[in-house]
């Protein structure tokens, strides 16, 4: 909550704990799904929401970010350029991190977000699908998941995932806190990955390939 309030102050947004704050950090290009965000913003801005974007790239999208900020002064901020400290403050202060990438072999921002207790909403592709487990309130052992991975990659599906996340944020605070805590306790270190690689090597020795 402190990180969120400080971020809202820094960006000149109304300081409101109750409004969901969505963030995007990345290159402004086709791969990152910026065109979908651009198409979704007019509808999303009808909601009680705040949205901040940090990135640089295609001059058309840079110009769009600036004009969108002037159109939605109390709801939208577009920071053209890149700053590591600012990216960390956005990741720490947002409630939701949006990553509608068309393809993402690994993806790092969703991992950073979960460590910060920020809930990722991602396109279910590549490393995003591998690392973000869609929220399930009726899991076998109670509530499960660390965010939302939507598919296929359409504006409607992305808006559905965002609205579901925003509704959970507003109306189901214990569930939201569970999402935050499960994300913060996930182990995405190389130690964990190395154990998985070792297991694959062990399986390979147990079931060796047939050679003629």
Automatic annotation (TrEMBL):
Statement: the UniProt record of this protein carries the keyword Plastid: yes
One MF term in the entry's GO annotations: glycosyltransferase activity
Organism this protein belongs to: Aegilops tauschii subsp. strangulata (Goatgrass)
Principal location: plastid
Protein name from the UniProt record: Glycosyl transferase family 1 domain-containing protein
Annotated keywords: Amyloplast, Glycosyltransferase, Plastid, Transferase
GO cellular component: amyloplast; chloroplast
Compartments, as annotated in UniProt: Plastid, Amyloplast
Record-linked PANTHER family: ALPHA AMYLASE DOMAIN-CONTAINING PROTEIN (PTHR45825:SF11), GRANULE-BOUND STARCH SYNTHASE 1, CHLOROPLASTIC/AMYLOPLASTIC (PTHR45825)
Ranges for domain Glycosyl transferase family: 15-166
Keyword Oxidoreductase: no
């Amino acid at each position: 909550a402190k990180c969120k309030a400080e971020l809202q102050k820094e960006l000149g947004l109304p300081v409101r704990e109750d409004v969901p704050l969505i963030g995007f950090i990345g290159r402004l290009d086709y791969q990152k799904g910026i065109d979908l965000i651009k198409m979704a913003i007019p509808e999303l801005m009808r909601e009680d929401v705040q949205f901040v974007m940090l990135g640089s790239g295609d001059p058309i999208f840079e110009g769009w970010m600036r004009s969108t900020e002037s159109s939605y002064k109390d709801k939208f901020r577009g920071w053209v350029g890149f700053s590591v400290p600012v990216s960390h403050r956005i990741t720490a202060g947002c409630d939701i991190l949006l990553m509608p990438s068309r393809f993402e072999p690994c993806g790092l921002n969703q991992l950073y977000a979960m460590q910060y207790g920020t809930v990722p909403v991602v396109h279910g592709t590549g490393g995003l699908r591998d690392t973000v487990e869609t929220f399930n309130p009726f899991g076998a052992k109670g509530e499960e998941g660390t965010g939302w991975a939507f598919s296929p990659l359409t504006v409607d599906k992305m808006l559905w995932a965002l609205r579901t996340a925003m509704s959970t944020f507003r109306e189901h605070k214990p569930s939201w806190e569970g999402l935050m805590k499960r994300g913060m306790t996930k182990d995405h270190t190389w130690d964990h990955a190395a154990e998985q690689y070792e297991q694959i090597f062990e399986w390979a020795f147990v079931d060796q390939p047939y050679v003629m």
